[in-house]
Amino acid sequence: MKLFHLVVLLGLGMCKAQAQTDSTQTAPSTELVQPQLRPSPMAMAQHKTENCYLKLTYGQPMRKGRVIFGKLEPYGKLWRTGANEATELTFTKDVKIAGRPVRSGTYTLFSIPNENSWTIILNTDLGQWGAFNYKPEHDYVRVDVPAGKNTQVYEALTFKFEETNEGATLNLMWDDVKVQIPMAFVK
């Protein structure tokens, strides 16, 4: 029995010594760790009518004095059409893009820039980082649209919807380039 009491006393003494040691150590921080700011912030363009909602979510890279198309984004090469995660485009109603039918839903938007025209690609594989795992077999539709010069230079990649009689045009503007993607609402 004496041995039992001795073990208990030694155990209690060790616990007290450990508690004193722990109390002199710095307490863990309760500060929230702030997420690191992205070099290319997330941006959104949207257009809403009585019957349809269009939303484009993209990473918005900056020009920073660089030559964008033909250099940073080479002609003839697949591009995620933004920065960070691949750009995603959502339609709540069936549409026609440059005359090609597209069912309502969310698609990844890729493109192949060229000097005078771009290939616009809607792909069904969502949640991608960039275009690293792009699979052409998941393409839903590909259309070619003209590319032109803009009247002003855009420092940040900018998308804007513009209402039309048939639906909307999605304008892509970066550097001095402007690409217009026509969308007609299916009645």
Mind explaining what this structure looks like?
The protein is mainly β and 187 residues long. The protein has one domain (42-185). Helix content is 12%, strand content 48%. The protein is built from one helix and nine strands. It has one helix at residues 2-24; strands spanning 42-48, 53-59, 83-91, 95-97, 100-102, 105-113, 117-123, 139-163, 167-185. It has a nine-stranded antiparallel sheet, with no helix packed on it. The protein is globular and about 45 Å long. 21% of the residues are buried. The model is unreliable at 6-10 and 17-29 (pLDDT under 50).
List the helices and strands and how they pair.
Blueprint: H1 2-24, E1 42-48, E2 53-59, E3 83-91, E4 95-97, E5 100-102, E6 105-113, E7 117-123, E8 139-163, E9 167-185
Antiparallel strand pairs: 1-2, 2-3, 3-6, 4-5, 4-9, 6-7, 7-8, 8-9
Can you describe this structure in just a few lines?
The protein contains one helix and nine strands; from the N terminus they run αβββββββββ. The protein has one helix spanning 2-24; strands at residues 42-48, 53-59, 83-91, 95-97, 100-102, 105-113, 117-123, 139-163, 167-185.
